[in-house]
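Teaching note: in complex prediction, the entire set of molecules is handled at once rather than each chain in isolation. The prompt given to students was simply: 'Predict the structure of this complex.' The entities are:
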Amino acid sequence: MCLHEGRKSRPAAKYMPNELDQTSVAISQPLEEMKVKRKKTRNYHNLHPVTNKIVSVLLGIFTLMCVFPFIYVIIISFTSEESIVRNGFEIIPKAWSIDAYHYLWNVKEQLFRSYGVTILVTIVGTIISVLMISFYSYAISRPQFKYRRFFTFLAFFTMLFSGGLVPTYIVVTQFLHLKNTIWALILPLAMNAFYIIIMRTFFLKSVPESILESARIDGASEWRIFFQIVFPLSLPGIATIALFSTLGYWNDWFTALLYIEEPKLVPLQSLLMKIEANLEFMRQNVEISIMQQSLFDTIPQDTAKMAMVVIATLPIAVSYPFFQKYFISGLTIGGVKE
Amino acid sequence: MKKRLGLLLALVLSIGTILSACTSKDSSTSEKDGKNGQPYEIKWYTIGTPQKDTDKVFAEVNKYLKKKINATVKMTQIDWGDWDQKSQVIINSGESFDITFTNGTKYVQNAQKGAFMAIDDLLNKEGKDLKQVIDPALLEGIKINGKVYGVPTNKEAARQSVYTFNKRLVDKYQFDITKVKTLEDLEPMLKVIKESEPTITPVATFKAYLPYDYIFNNELPFGFPLEGDRDHVINFFESDLAMQTYKTMHNYYKAGYLKEDAATSKDSWPMDVENWFVRMGDSAPYADLLWSRSAKYDVVSVPAEEPTTFNDSVSGAIQAISATSKNPKKAMEFLNLLNTDPYLRNLVDKGIEGVHYKKNDNGTIKDLPARVEKYNIPTYSIGNFYTLYLYDNDPKDKWDKFKEFNSAAKPAPTLGFHFNNDPVRSEIAAITNISKEFYPALATGSVDPEEYLPKYNKKLKEAGIDKVLKEIQKQFDEWKSKNK
Amino acid sequence: MKRFLRDIYINRIWLLMVLPGTIWLLLFSYLPMFGQVLAFKKFRIDPDGFFASVMNSEWVGLDNFKYLFSTNDAFIITRNTILYNLIFIVLGLIAAVTTAILLSELANKKLSKVYQTGMLFPHFISWVIGSYFVFTFLSSEHGLLNNILSWFHIDPISWYSDPKYWPFILVFISLWKGIGYGSIVYLAAIVGIDRTYYEAAMIDGASKWKQIKHVTLPMIKPLMIILTIMNLGRIFNSDFGLFFQVPRDSGALYPVTNVIDTFVYRGLMTLGDIGMSTAAGLYQSAVGFVLVIITNYIVRKIDEESALF
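The expected output is the structure of the full assembly:
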């Protein structure tokens, strides 16, 4: 979707300069900026102050609704187990306790290991993922690539049709022999057709051929073009995919359930899910749990579960701002002009 | 577009052939009975949280096994919550392993799919010692189409549903619980509790008991009456007994003896919280003792039925030999030893003497801290109970009582009969959904049965329940005539 | 043939770029696809491994699909699945885009960042925990909503037994969980819009609203269309946790909460049949695929560049 095709298909684009205007705007930009600065009173860069306040408040309320359950989870994790069984979950618990965290501290080896596994898998996985996806999407976004339609379809088809659990399991374990290795946690999630299509849209829009033409004329190789021009231009898109990838790896527990038996390789969310699933199992099989009482004294109850949610989510929530700067501050101003 | 799809298809097919070549090559190059006398490694999947000392204990186990049967065992435990999903994937993927834990419906489903080996011949040869010690009722009950597909754990074979009471309250109000035989008998006591004990919920939510032998479980409308005509399957939700029982339950619910969320509650009412008066459970010898110990206050039970041996109660824990096992004979030899040799059984179950437990002078044992922390295996899932060492606080005649319990039990009408649901799968899928829609609310008394039972039964009829009933009856009659 | 080889040579850089991804797709997506054939077979396990099992299982034609169509419930689950998904797609799009635009227009950038982070939290809450949380609101005994109702002297409602409120509850919860995550893509797209377009608009005297209407929206239109097409492809799939955990599997609510995925899950609990579950998946994929092809075709006719392929 290059600019020079835009004029025909977008009737509402009356405010978008056509190709010829581009250079003239570039030249006159500093002048315009000065004009805008002088007319500060009629500044349409921002919202009207009243609208701004209203929007702010509305967004604020919604954000509060989103954050509140999490705060609730934190409160529950500091409640005493007995209080929960008697009174259910309460906003202001009748009895506080740090038993849950105590339990977690007792299993800290397992916990630290799981943290380590998750962090490693997330970082390596995201890097591999972003690279693979970026290359793929970039190639299929270029009009010169003769087979781009085929490869787009190849990726997209997998979004709808998948092999199913058992066949995938067989490919990973019997064919690729990845069982109980860390690669079993990284590779199955590395590519995602959804991200590929999104990335392709970003590449199509933010990297029009016109820019690349000049670089090509200057003799730069496609690889150089990719790393020096394309990459910086598409940072918001790449940051989005990187974020999605990171979240995907961090939150994944199912892959470990299938492919990991070695306790040393169990990632964080998997640990959490195990505990949840074990609790569920005990609930539904009361006879077994009573017979094996000694076994289940050691399984933590709801409060510990919540405590695990807290420590599993906090790191990623805290790392989000790192990605955020690509979404707010707009690193791409003026990148189009040279 | 068509060209692209065609290309894709060709791609998939050619890859499929490559895959088949590779995987079949894989499975054929694995060791048979140890090349040149090497011990065969038995792969064993069982349930439970993986323990830290498993390797240590199994080093000892393997030392012993190498001498006795020239084999070693690699036990892999799969965690409780993961078990269902993971074991299903392992079995479906045709992975080559030897022994797996299984139970209940999963045992039946997998055996019918061909996942397990029929072990009748093996039992007569490599497993003849173990065949002698296992209660014959257990072996009868797990037969599918006349063949045995696994080694059941020798423990209690019968089930007896009981009403269990909080003894402190029983004593306080001097209830005479020996008079309790049915759900209705509970009423006067529930009334008193509701009026005088505000912190106690009279009924710890349970699903009302009906005296039927279920083909699947208590939710689906297929059962053989335990009393009366035991040879015909019926939709027991149409019976007067069901209507009456659910009406009683509904009255209790309206009177506030149950919690309001009874229909959807997932609360397991842990014994150690004293906030209930009566509950239901399945009893076994000395159950009250075990429960009282874990609750840390006394509970006392009254039977709701005679002890009966059901398909379910005999298949609580089974070790099955996989159809993909490379050396089923060795696997059976191991199971034979596990179930008859006290040294091996206790080694696998309790760990190493001196490290995980210590022996007392009178032959009983006491756990050491290392046992709970590092080697806590689910006893019920492994094998024969009767060869286990007793704890010093166990009653001396524990195992005798078990045997008594088992022999006193009456067999259920369908003991040994397992329905093959192939001809009516669609109907069952639909009926399962319908049952889940109505059963929980009806059985906990949350809705009025006068209104909902007819609705339920009508929907069942529309979903084809008659066809299923006919098919069950047909297969049952065939089975019965073959096993006269 | 020669021309083919020459084309390969010309496109070698691009082919090299798609190579790692393609290998992955072949291995992890296409290779397992042959398992779909199980939808047409009655699965029996063969001692020689999975492939032998598949080959030796008997063909049963469309038998495995019957249960998806044969009952009265079939209509209900299909209707529920489609209606909910349509609502989610439309409302989700509007909500995500609006939120993204509002967030990017907020004067206080710091506040915007804080809001953005906060909105993402629901994404981290699994449905199991989420359903507990909903329970604290809707529980008949101690639930917050019933408490509030009692202040206004309104009788408490037994939320988990009364179907009529649930479509709204489920839509609301679904939006709550998804807006934060869903708005990220649009935010990234908005940020990439060249500021000069806005300046040109302002020079022409356009108000904020006009700017949004004539610059922002058209610039993110391709993204909106593509995402919508992709979501339409999943029209027969549902978020299992939302429809199973949140209503706590309450039978009374099935008429409005039973979707294809929950029906399949419950129906196969006693059967454990891999052929039937594969059939369900294939059915969902096939319908989604057809829908995407049709929608893509229509979009291509209107605005060629916005189409998926």
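Point out the following to students. Residues 72-105 of chain C form the longest helix (34 residues). The first strand of chain C starts at residue 41 and ends at 42.
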